[in-house]
Amino acid sequence: xxxxxxxxxxxxxxxxxxxxxxxxxxxxxxxxxxxxxxxxxxxxxxxxxxxxxxxxxxxxxxxxxxxxxxxxxxxxxxxxxxxxxxxxxxxxxxxxxxxxxxxxxxxxxxxxxxxxxxxxxxxxxxxxxxxxxxxxxxxxxxxxxxxxxxxxxxxxxxxxxxxxxxxxxxxxxxxxxxxxxxxxxxxxxxxxxxxxxxxxxxxxxxxxxxxxxxxxxxxxxxxxx
Length: 225
Description:
Blueprint: E1 2-4, E2 10-12, E3 18-22, E4 40-48, E5 53-59, E6 63-70, E7 73-77, E8 82-85, E9 90-94, E10 99-104, E11 111-118, E12 129-133, E13 142-143, E14 149-156, E15 161-163, E16 167-176, E17 179-181, E18 188-189, E19 194-200, E20 204-207, E21 211-218
Antiparallel strand pairs: 1-19, 2-3, 3-4, 4-11, 5-10, 6-9, 6-11, 7-8, 7-10, 9-12, 13-14, 14-21, 15-20, 16-19, 16-21, 17-18, 17-20
């Protein structure tokens, strides 16, 4: 198990209301030892001031999953979708053969969200797709099409334990609060910390106060060509 603390993430942002923290090599930050984990190639924490956001930009052949921590995210894309995503909603943009989109904070409060990019399986890229699951319940797995990846959301009360999936690649991201992975105190995740586990088997997490986790269960790596 390897734990990346929040303060070790690569800083980013444009200095005009956007502050980013990257878990993996991204943009001007490149580390050949940290380009992906399983199918996950990006896990960005974004903080967007009111009235600002990302201008229209393209993506292709990625599965982009977004979890809003606080505030409201306004999404608009080249397929004609325009929607507002709120805390508790899971947003998925399948970039497929190519899509352009904007992400903005049109509200009055600061916006915080976690955005995760995963590489889909081989084959011709389909048409872009979009989905929002409103108020996803704890214990409801969210499986991504064209991947062997499943997202699990865990919201825990103080002292509550939860079993983590058994998987060749397990990525656990702390959203809020503190959670101990296993029995060792040095494996406690705070907000913004993440654990990468290979060949996870029989692990559980225990909340130290109210806590929220995002857990990726992955069963393959990217296949190219």
